[in-house]
Amino acid sequence: MRIRVHNTLATKDLRRRLRKEETPAEKVLWAALRNRKLNGEKFTRQHGIGAYVADFHCSKYKLVIEVDGGIHLRKDVAERDRTRSEFIEAWDITILRVTNEEVLNDLLGVLEKIRGYLK
User: Fold this and answer.
1) In 3D, which of 32, 53, 54 has the Cα closest to residue 41?
2) DSSP character for 74?
3) Which domains can be identified in the chain, with CATH numbers?
4) Which positions ≥6 away from 55 have C-beta within 8 Å?
5) Which of 7, 20, 77, 118 has the fewest CB atoms within 10 Å, i.e. is most exposed?
């Protein structure tokens, strides 16, 4: 029996809400990733993995991209991020974390980082 971990019904409403409420940095990065704009690879946004929702996901390369704002520096949020990362990485998925500032101020650099994982 195969366990469904991606985009379960349990996270459907959350994923939908997060797509409607994306941050400015997520909006900028999505514009650069959508429609196979980066290396012809398919990315999805607000992708469910278990009980968690990743900002961006490329299933072919088992890559999650998380765009982190300043709130991720708080101790309680950082602890939740660690727990979440452990769960996602247990499914053999790599997580690339970038900051809002990186996306907004150096999009080309962020895209180069992502390309480094698409090999």
Assistant:
1) 32
2) S
3) 9-117 (3.40.960.10)
4) 26, 29, 45, 46, 64, 65, 66, 67
5) 20
Yes or no: say if 7 and 19 are a contact pair by the CB < 8 Å rule.
Answer: no
Q: Can you give the pTM of this predicted structure?
A: 0.93
Report percent pLDDT > 70 for the chain.
97
> How many Cβ atoms sit within 10 Å of the Cβ of residue 52?
17
Give the pair of three-digit tokens for residue 99: 């900051």
pLDDT higher than 90, residue 69: no
- Strands, E assignment, the chain: 44-49, 52-58, 63-68, 94-99
Contact 58, 111 (CB under 8 A): no
What CA–CA distance (Å, rounded) separates 61 from 94?
A: 8
